[in-house]
Design brief:
- The protein is mainly β.
- The protein folds into two domains: 1-33, no CATH class; 34-81 and 89-130, Immunoglobulin-like (Sandwich).
- 10% of the residues lie in helices and 34% in strands.
- It is built from two helices and nine strands.
- The radius of gyration is 29 Å and the shape is elongated.
């Protein structure tokens, strides 16, 4: 697959740095892309979304969620208990390593809440577009003719007689 160099776009655009940074980071996915913990992103309504992460073995105290400047960061830091003499792990199939997962949020997307149940972390998101940015209809003024000093002036109609 040929490599794409966005440097030519940097030279000819203003204000799209965040977009190009995202493209750069996603272009390097094959080189050590993060796969832990697995997650789903769902659309639950017209302006509602849910991120679900599989965090088996992590409790509420082990997880932290931060939303800052269009980025949602989920961190998991689990303190391992050392093996005791009575029990030793012979095979570790459940990952217990720390992680940090970042999600880029679109404009006006806010975190509404989070819950942890059955080893799944659910983060509820909603897009709230400000009133000033919503589309609106503009009423058409019903007066006919030109306005002169704030009053409607009727125009004369010329009748044509067919010859």
């Amino acid at each position: 697959m040929p490599n794409f160099d966005p440097s030519s776009l940097y030279r000819s655009t203003v204000g799209f740095d965040r977009l190009f940074g995202m493209l750069d980071s996603h272009g390097n996915f094959d080189n050590g892309g993060q796969t832990y913990p697995p997650y789903n992103i769902e659309r639950t309504g017209e302006n509602a979304y849910r991120v679900t992460m599989a965090v088996a073995g992590f409790g509420e105290d082990d997880l932290s969620i931060e939303a800052k400047q269009h980025t949602l960061t989920v961190k998991g830091d689990r303190n391992e208990k050392p093996d005791t003499d009575e029990s030793r792990v012979l095979y570790r199939g459940i990952a217990a390593r720390s992680f940090e997962r970042r999600f880029q949020l679109a404009d006006h997307v806010e975190v509404r809440g989070a819950s942890l149940e059955n080893g799944l972390l659910h983060i509820e998101l909603a897009r709230e577009i400000p009133e000033a940015m919503k589309p609106r209809t503009v009423a058409i003024n019903g007066t006919t003719g030109k306005q002169v000093n704030g009053k409607a002036k009727k125009q004369k109609q010329v009748e044509a007689v067919a010859a």
